[in-house]
Design goal:
Elements: H1 3-27, H2 37-46, E1 52-54, E2 58-60, H3 62-85, H4 95-114, H5 119-138, E3 145-147, E4 153-155, H6 163-185, H7 187-194, H8 199-223, H9 231-263
Antiparallel strand pairs: 1-2, 3-4
Helix pairs in contact: 2-8, 4-5, 4-9, 5-9, 6-7, 6-8, 6-9, 7-9, 8-9
């Protein structure tokens, strides 16, 4: 790059930054920050003022609508892939087939490593749970809008950013571990899993805390006018992608490990013969 080209690049960057600063100053809304930050954070966590009508039957948190949407998209995608894509698989995989096989292979390998006794069922579960966590986390990046009961427009949040969704995922995962021990080892296996009674609480709040922290940081950045341009996009995307990958990996690893412990058949003690 010549000296003239470098100077032109520097001028363009400087003009872009100046234009952004001028735009921030001109479009700053002094009334935006009248709502206390405590109320903003409370609404992010509890969704008390942003309820949505569910088919006119009852008022629900917007995260429930997100959960229904993500579940419907996953089911439709699974059916379409099974009918139209999988029958066309070849020995030399195309790009989509390669990605799908890699994803299935990763979770299958995780199940076989941590739950070698019954890897097939838990492999299928952690694959579904991992994909759900990943998709539901990046779902908020789509910016789909919903209408609250007050008539205001609201961006649908990630399903697991709601404490109820995180608890449901944690309890369901614990149920898989619990009944896995029961079916494979009988009551002893179930009792072994019951010893870890704090597991669903820890999994639930780990999911909720991690995803909520990203939402709170994004809201804090967007709350102030000077940081509400460009920066929220970068922060939101980075936090969302990192949380999607980390939380999907952490929960599926924990489930496969504890499932392996509860389903493992312990060798029977040999009785000593009396001499």
């Amino acid at each position: 790059m010549s000296k003239k080209q470098r100077n032109i690049s520097i001028i363009i960057i400087a003009l872009t930054i100046a234009a952004l600063l001028i735009g921030i100053h001109l479009t700053a809304n002094p009334e935006k920050e009248t709502e206390p930050i405590q109320e903003v954070m409370k609404d992010v966590v509890l969704h008390e003022t942003g309820k949505i009508n569910l088919f006119g039957l009852t008022q629900v948190n917007p995260a429930l609508i997100s959960a229904f949407t993500v579940s419907a998209l996953m089911i439709i995608a699974a059916v379409l892939i099974r009918i139209f894509v999988i029958p066309k698989f070849t020995l030399k995989p195309a790009k989509f087939q390669y990605v799908l096989e890699k994803a299935v292979g990763f979770f299958s390998g995780l199940a076989e490593t941590n739950s070698p006794h019954k890897p097939f069922f838990v492999g299928g579960y952690i694959f579904a749970a991992g994909v759900y966590i990943f998709i539901s986390t990046i779902f908020e990046l789509l910016g789909l809008q919903g209408v609250t009961t007050s008539g205001a427009s609201i961006s649908l949040p990630a399903p697991l950013a709601d404490i109820n969704g995180a608890i449901a995922m944690g309890v369901m995962s614990y149920g898989v571990i619990l009944f896995g021990g029961l079916f494979n080892n009988g009551p002893k296996g179930m009792l072994n899993a019951l010893k870890d009674f704090s597991l669903p609480i820890s999994m639930s709040f780990r999911l909720f805390g991690a995803l909520l922290s990203g939402a709170i940081v994004t809201e804090l950045v967007y709350y102030y006018s000077l940081t509400s341009y460009v920066i929220p996009v970068i922060v939101g995307v980075l936090f969302t992608l990192i949380h999607a990958l980390i939380q999907a990996y952490v929960l599926t690893t924990l489930v496969s490990i504890f499932y392996g412990e509860s389903s493992e058949k312990k060798p029977k003690k040999e009785k000593r013969k009396k001499t």
